[in-house]
Amino acid sequence: MSEKTIVHLLRHGEVHNPEGILYGRLPGYQLSENGVLMAQAAAKWFASRDVKALLSSPMERAQQTAEPLAEMIGLPVLLDDRLIEAGNRFEGLTFGVGRGSLRRPHHWPHLINPVRPSWGEPYEEIAARMVAAVKRARAEARGHEAVCVSHQLPIWILRRKAEKQRLWHHPARRQCELASVTSLTFDGDRLVSVDYAEPAGGLVKRPTVPGA
């Protein structure tokens, strides 16, 4: 008989980012006080789950989000570089029109191909590394559940790949809120369902921070 394994993709909590920077892979960006509460809410959501493996992106905000869960279930946090945020040419800048980076003509060539996309890490590459990370997590927790702490874009691209949708999309239509959980259920190695939950939904402020 096949084994049921669930791999949960947990997006990190809110980051302290008062200047609204697209921080991407930049070091030094950590959870805000509200983000810590989000991480705690997510940990409580997993309290009754059969979690046997906990993996995280190496970014500080992801590791901080994993901490309350690691303490609660008594598991080490395994770092996996494949869960890292997507690369982006606008990293370190404010993004948008007005005073944002889009008002500068030298940035415009990076916007010519939204399908790839031309401004950052190709969607297919993001999908491939995230699929590999999920396979590792599934192997670590075979017959049980695993949690992978990652970032909005990589999680959303993984979900679209799993649901056999085209990878390019409108960023405003992503269903991947701060501290949300996207769950992939496998029967053996076969994906049978994708589910979504927002354990910290009541803590989310609008608009959410960029570059998460």
UniProtKB/TrEMBL annotation:
SMART domains: PGAM. It comes from the Bacteria. One of its GO terms (cellular component) is cytoplasm. One of its GO terms (molecular function) is phosphatase activity. It holds the Pfam family His_Phos_1. InterPro entries: His_Pase_superF_clade-1 (IPR013078), His_PPase_superfam (IPR029033), PGM_Phosphatase (IPR050275). PANTHER family: BROAD-SPECIFICITY PHOSPHATASE YOR283W-RELATED, PHOSPHOGLYCERATE MUTASE. This is Histidine phosphatase family protein.
